[in-house]
Specification:
Structural class: alpha/beta
Shape: globular
Helix content: 40-55%
Strand content: 15-25%
Number of helices: 11
Distance between the termini: 33 Å
Order of helices and strands: EHEHEHEHEHHEHHEHEHEHE
Largest sheet: 6 strands, parallel
Strand order of the largest sheet: 4-3-1-2-9-10
């Protein structure tokens, strides 16, 4: 089944581009439209009602551009709003949740760490996921300030290193063997994180799993673009486009407008 409409993605800023990269790598023939709501980042500090309202606004922006499927490339928006989005709109949604399951199943120390936003860690969906693994000790840490530094282009800053050292050291001391990144911004911090964690600790995020699920839904329900098609990829931001331009290595058109 051929469906030439684009895939839509949104996040509270540039973090979801880590998800977009996984999807684009797996589905290079699919057109995409990415919405970076950096003006309202981070979502993790907002109320559930605010997150739902922003998620609806972003969804409607993408639906107005005829997106055939929407990837909620934000852990906080997924855990707080995807149920409401699926009830309100007919388009298929794919969410992103912390990869607790593979970490819990493979942990030998029975201790895993999760670094995420307050909005994700406090959500009902996250609680339900964690509840399944009673025999695993899950050490949660809110990544206070990390998203703001990433959005400001300060990934390699000393301030970033100090925050990560403060957040991760107690996890290392607790003998975790897996660190789950529970925010789509955080994969951009992996080089910094690896400087702090011992090699024996495995870092996991959800990007690859989201890409596989996107492919599955396209093939089984929505329809794919023609495999020989050269994709068009558009990126929208409602703040200064410099940071997202740098993250994407100046390879794609960035449209800066208020929304």
């Amino acid at each position: 089944m051929i469906n030439k409409n684009p895939i839509g993605l949104f996040d509270s800023g540039i973090g979801g581009t880590s998800i977009w990269k996984e999807i684009h790598q797996l589905l290079p023939y699919e057109d995409t439209i990415y919405l970076a709501d950096s003006k309202n980042a981070p979502y993790g500090q907002k109320s559930k009602e605010e997150i739902i309202a922003l998620s609806c606004k972003n969804t409607e922006f993408l639906l107005n551009q005829n997106c055939k499927l929407i990837v909620v490339a934000c852990n906080t928006a997924t855990t707080n709003a995807i149920k409401e989005l699926r009830a309100k709109y007919k388009v298929p949604f794919i969410g992103i949740e912390p990869a607790i399951k593979p970490a819990a199943l493979h942990s030998k120390t029975q201790k895993i760490g999760i670094l995420a936003t307050k909005g994700t860690l406090n959500s009902e969906l996250f609680y339900k996921n964690v509840e399944q693994y009673q025999d695993i000790q899950i050490i949660e840490q809110i990544g206070h300030g990390l998203v703001e530094l990433i959005e400001a282009g300060k990934i390699d800053s000393e301030e970033m290193h100090q925050l990560l050292f403060e957040f991760l050291t107690p996890m290392v001391q607790s003998d975790i063997d897996y660190l789950v990144l529970g925010c789509s911004h955080y994969p951009y911090l992996i080089p910094q994180i690896k400087k702090i964690l011992p090699e024996k600790i495995t870092i996991i995020d959800s990007g690859e799993a989201v890409a596989r699920q996107t492919k599955k839904i396209l093939e089984e329900i929505v329809g794919t673009n023609e495999k020989l098609h050269t994709s068009k990829n558009l990126f929208y931001t409602n703040t200064n486009p410099e940071v997202i331009t740098a993250i994407l290595e100046n390879k794609y058109p960035i449209i800066a407008q208020d929304f």
